Amino acid sequence: MTRAPEPYRNRIELLQGTLDMLILQTLERRPQHGYGIIQTLRARSAEILQVETGSLYPALHRLERQGWVDSAWGQTEQNQRAKFYRITANGGRQLALSRSKWDTMVTAIASILRPIPEN
Length: 119
Description:
Layout: H1 11-29, E1 32-33, H2 34-44, H3 53-65, E2 69-75, E3 81-87, H4 89-113
Antiparallel strand pairs: 1-3, 2-3
């Protein structure tokens, strides 16, 4: 028997959870530094998602505290020192859970937006 999905408790959880999921998805492909994550999110969303550093770094620090990402210092393509983030095994499991919750949310919203057929 499948368990009913947990609803989002509030707007902040939904927004943080969505940003966390997008960051984890970005890091699933390869480790990246903060600016690289921002650029990837912009490019993959056709410039629609504009994540600011003021939102990104607190999210990365939160993900690191939760054990979903870890970080190490390295060199960028421009030979600058930067902190690179990578997804952990726990982060991969969280990403799978987040995707499932996201799919449930999208289905629920689509159901509401679908016109009701008239009798």
